[in-house]
Write a structure and sequence with these properties.
Layout lengths: L23 H18 L3 H7 L7 H6 L17 H14 L1 H21 L2 H12 L5 E4 L15 E5 L2 E12 L6 E9 L5 E9 L5 E5 L11 E12 L11 H35 L1 E2 L2 E2 L4 H29 L5 H25 L11 H11 L6 H13 L6
Helix pairs in contact: 1-4, 4-5, 4-7, 5-6, 5-7, 7-8, 7-9, 7-10, 8-9, 9-10, 9-11
Cofactor: FAD
Keywords: FAD, Flavoprotein, Oxidoreductase, Transit peptide
Family: Belongs to the acyl-CoA dehydrogenase family.
Length: about 400
């Protein structure tokens, strides 16, 4: 069992009283998701992680909280603010990154793709069921040889009369083996032979679509990531997402997911800090608690400072997003910084637990392992560094 304590109303790491900058609606969102995590995730996550189980039974509860497609307006979605969505992701990831990832893949990727780029008919068909948790979606962009550079994707969609025929492979696709619909990005080849990246809605029951979970994993064990094979998958002409052809289509969805990570990573860091603080106050060595030693206090202070700075950054980015002023490079600032500091906080917290810290009785090492994936997906540290380098210098160093 995970023995990390439930988080009090005001986090110990809130050294600057940021809570006072949150609206009543934002605090209500925080408290509702935090209660769900304390009640449903904390008591069970060690077992789910150890057994590599994604708990599908909690999906209806997530839907009832309005977490699926939380930031989308209409179609049964909650239509909450960017800051409310970020707060929810932070609280979920305090439980586990893999369970936050479910909400991200479902809402920020699959549902956002349909909401941003789909036809009204496509939105009506898919979004209400996805918001209710009755339909699970996935987002197929990454390929075995096309990760950080999706422009090199090899998956193709060729027009054949009134149909599209998809062939190719995708890798590291969250939820694919339990999904009902997949948003697949492919180079669509028209009659003239011209190719351009387009999105397609693929019911996973379509012949030629196969999803295979990637196992075993050392990270994100309470989540599902898959290989997808597309072999002569035939779709009707209206399966294509009609809006925003080109890579800007999937990139706009990735930015939604990256935004959630800016907040989510801090949840893992905060939970690890709380576990280390509680342990250090209870563990007696040389006749006094670990928390009474100067080196222990230095570690706690450094961790709390980094979490607080990351929180300031997340809140600033959220406010900019709600104001319609968020630029792409700003998301890279948040994703790069907060993933970087979160994994270091989790590792440092583990050191305060000594040998006990390598067991699933405590959360920091589980969080650190999960963050190896979070730090990698939706843009590696290196990619976000180059995005910011280009913004600062005006020179692209990607090639």
């Amino acid at each position: 069992m995970n023995t990390a304590p439930a988080v009090p109303a005001t986090a110990v790491t809130d050294l600057l009283d940021l809570e006072s900058d949150l609206s009543p609606e934002e605090l209500e969102t925080r408290d509702a998701v935090r209660e769900f995590v304390d009640r449903r995730i904390r008591p069970n996550i060690a077992g789910w992680y150890a057994d590599a189980v994604f708990p599908r039974e909690i999906v209806p509860e997530m839907a009832a909280l309005g977490l699926l497609g939380m930031h989308i307006q209409g179609y049964g979605c909650a239509g909450k603010s960017a800051v409310q969505y970020g707060i929810a992701m932070q609280e979920l990831e305090a439980g586990d990154s893999g369970l936050r990832t479910f909400v991200s893949v479902q809402g920020s990727l699959a549902m956002s793709a349909i909401a941003k780029h789909g036809s009204e008919e496509q939105k009506q068909r898919w979004l209400p069921g996805m918001a209710a948790g009755e339909i699970v979606g996935c987002f197929g962009l990454t390929e075995p040889t096309a990760g950080s550079d999706p422009s090199t994707m090899a998956t193709t969609a060729v027009r054949d009369g009134d149909e599209w025929v998809l062939d190719g492979a995708k890798r590291w696709i969250g939820l694919a083996s339990i999904a009902d619909v997949a948003v697949i990005w492919a180079k669509a080849v028209d009659e003239s032979g011209r190719a351009r990246v387009r999105g397609f809605l693929v019911p996973t029951s379509t012949p030629g679509f196969t999803a295979t979970p990637i196992e075993p994993k050392l990270s994100m064990r309470a989540s599902i990531q898959c290989d997808i094979a597309l072999e002569g998958v035939r779709l009707p002409a209206d399966a294509i997402l009609p809006e925003n052809p080109g890579l800007r289509g999937p990139f706009s969805c990735l930015n939604e997911a990256r935004y959630g990570i800016v907040w989510g990573a801090l949840g893992a860091a905060r939970d690890s800090f709380d576990a280390a603080l509680a342990y250090s106050q209870q563990r007696i060595q040389f006749d006094k608690p670990l928390a009474a030693y100067q080196l222990s206090q230095e570690k706690l202070v450094n961790m709390a400072l980094e979490i607080q700075k990351g929180q300031l950054l997340a809140l600033r980015i959220g406010r900019l997003k709600d104001a319609g002023r968020l630029e792409n490079h700003m998301i890279s600032v948040g994703k790069l910084n907060n993933c970087r500091i979160a994994i270091e906080v989790c590792r440092e917290a583990r050191t305060m637990l000594g040998g006990n810290g390598i067991t699933l009785e405590h959360s920091p090492l589980r969080h650190a392992n999960n963050l190896e994936s979070v730090r990698t997906y939706e843009g590696t540290d290196e990619v976000h560094t180059l995005v910011l380098g280009q913004h600062l210098t005006g020179i692209s160093a990607f090639r």
